[in-house]
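Lab notebook: predicted structure, single chain.

Context: the supervisor wants predicted structures on file for every construct in the current expression panel, including those that have not yet been purified. This is the next one on the list. No modifications to the sequence; it matches the entry in the shared construct table.
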Amino acid sequence: MRTALVIGTGLIGTSAALALTDRGVTVHLADHDPDRARTAAARGAGTDAPPEGPVDLCVVAVPPAHVAATLAEAMRAGAARGYLDVASVKGGPQRELAALGADLSSYIGTHPMSGKEQSGPLAGSGDLFEGRPWVLTPSRDTHTEVLNLALELVALCRAVPVVMDADAHDRAVALVSHTPQLVSSMVAARLEQAEETAVRLCGQGIRDVTRIAASDPRMWVDILSANPGPVADVLAALAADLDETVRSLRALQSADDGKRDEGVTGVEDVLRRGNAGRARVPGKHGTAPAAYETVAVLISDQPGELARIFADAGRAGVNIEDVRIEHATGQQAGVVQLMVAPTAAPLLAASLRERGWALRQ
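Prediction complete. Output recorded below exactly as produced.
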């Protein structure tokens, strides 16, 4: 791949363009808002000048509702040898493109499973996709050359290709992406009118649950509008669990010992099923989640403190598998949780104490 056209210079389009440009591909940028394309170009994502002829690959990075029409227009103009989109739903755009009479042999649907709460060209990053799954949903008509171009794009972005059926993909993202967004927003919405004393008690748990609730509502309306059925199916199953859990909690208020026992059983059941489901979430490098041990260290909110603690862990010869930071409300301090192999935890704890760090049980 020597040349590419990226249509849509939001977070995903700009990030893909930055990655391609960094690896020597000449990238042309287009957007319905010329200012966004100019902003992406100013960031080094390519040029906002139109290509002089067909490029190797056209990447359509527009909202799902506009994917098919944008692809069809580019195809009619003969913009590229191959075409793909990066929308978060796949079945609908593919069917819409076929209904428009487009040649599906030059097209493949894709979806990079990566993003963040910010949007727009200024949020783009050339390393956004590194190590992340990038789903490819070829149809029966997709030409091998186009599939190879898509695989090359994924490789240049340093992502991991995953081939799926389009409708299976949409059911999967309804469960692992779209429903979590709505649930996060629903939990965060409870905080809007909450008393200030309650909000001040927010800890790491509520921060984790509500992190993605900061996402752009307009963007998510576009996404959910393109995949409403599968998302509604997951929410209906979740609603059944919620109803049962509410009944169990009400039973715990009963004066009847039998009902309280039923309540305990119901609450325990959902918590245990949650444990089982969480255990299936892939861990580091996509492997089965490992049982890490946590070494919790008190840390002040000052420049260089994180670098110092990581350096001290390195001097102890311990690899940090994962890290989390819990901030103390109203204080310039917090707790950094270092996840390490169980056999390494005692060594790390002893080494950090020797170097003056205060550990938390």
